[in-house]
């Protein structure tokens, strides 16, 4: 599956358009991560457990979008965008969407 943030695939032509496909996931923080984050917040530095959590969430959301595009018969997803939002305290949603197409 070709995935791109631009509205075309260079040197290829869009021959079929399926419309918007998307994927999302909601991930919650672990209480142990919060304790470590508090320590990191005091001393400074990257909070690796949160970075890993968000990376996992992005991968899950993208895979769900790709599955939807594959079911439609697409071989590419163009104009891909990602958004995040806080659902509740300690939980966030990652939403990814794009346009499913067939390119040749």
- Number of alpha- plus pi-helical segments: 2
Structural class of the secondary elements? Answer: alpha+beta
How large is the share of residues in beta strands? Answer: 35-45%
Largest sheet: 4 strands, mixed
Round the mean pLDDT to the nearest integer and report it.
86
Please give the CATH architecture.
Answer: 2-Layer Sandwich
Rg over CA atoms: 17 Å
CATH superfamily label:
Hypothetical protein apc22750. Chain B
Q: Number of folding domains?
A: 1
What string gives the helices and strands in order? EEHHEE
CATH topology: Translation Initiation Factor IF3
Unreliable stretches, pLDDT < 50, 5 or more residues?
A: none
Read across the widest sheet, the strand sequence of neighbours is 1-3-4-2
The total of beta strands comes to 4
**Distance, first to last CA:** 13 Å
Task: Write out key terms for the chains shown.
4-stranded mixed beta sheet, Translation Initiation Factor IF3, single chain, 4 strands, alpha+beta
What can you tell me about this protein's structure?
The chain has 104 residues and is of the alpha+beta class. It has one domain (2-103): 2-Layer Sandwich (Translation Initiation Factor IF3). Helices cover 37% and strands 41% of the residues. It has two helices and four strands. The protein has helices at 31-43, 48-72, and strands at residues 2-3, 14-28, 76-88, 91-103. It has a four-stranded mixed beta sheet with strand order 1-3-4-2. A hairpin with a 2-residue loop joins strand 3 (76-88) and strand 4. The protein is elongated. The protein starts with a strand and ends with a strand. The mean pLDDT is 86.
